[in-house]
Amino acid sequence: MFSFEDKIAVIDQEINKRRGRWKLKAIPSIDFEDIAQILRIHIYKKWCMWDQARPLEPWLNKVITHQITNLIRNLYGNFARPCLNCAANQGGDLCSIFGKQSSICPLYAHWEKHKKSAHDTKLPVPLTGLHEQEVYNIPEGGDDILKQIEELTIKMQTALTPMQYKFFDLLYVQGKSEEEVAKLMGYKSHDNKRKAGYKQTSQLKKLVIQKAKKIIEKGL
To answer: Any idea where the domains of the chain sit in the sequence?
Structure first.
């Protein structure tokens, strides 16, 4: 039986194939090295699902593809400002219509009012359930990081109620979208303009982040 560590060279090779395709430059706090580490952690957690009677590369490709899709959707697609896909975007913060990408534009103003707070909250928290700023200040070393993640996950399980931990696991460990988590948790919204479970998931997310920060600040 091959362990995760036995195949780390193959894993890194498959991850690095995506390096040239990573075009999401709008998230300055997360570059491809951060994405690569998130992918390694996700593969490590899914390792027991690989049927070792079959080739590793196709399985890795499937896992990596799905996780990158989740990353794009959760870190970028749902929250990024509308300028990124606008024909008037001239790069940086320049706009060919309004001069500068700002709330002068009705689309930008709508994003700023309804999505910017979610954008700012979501970016520091990867799907692996860790606070990005603390995680990527940990000295390099795959084994140490994986141990830190495992320890934090265990401590989160004791710090949260079963319902709260289920939310934490679905959103930050399994990498599901907030809408998917709301449906799986059975939450509904009476506001048709909002996604299902908006209030519940928003409150739980704040609670989970606060708990994780306290655990990290005390030291793992």
So the answer is: 81-114, 132-218
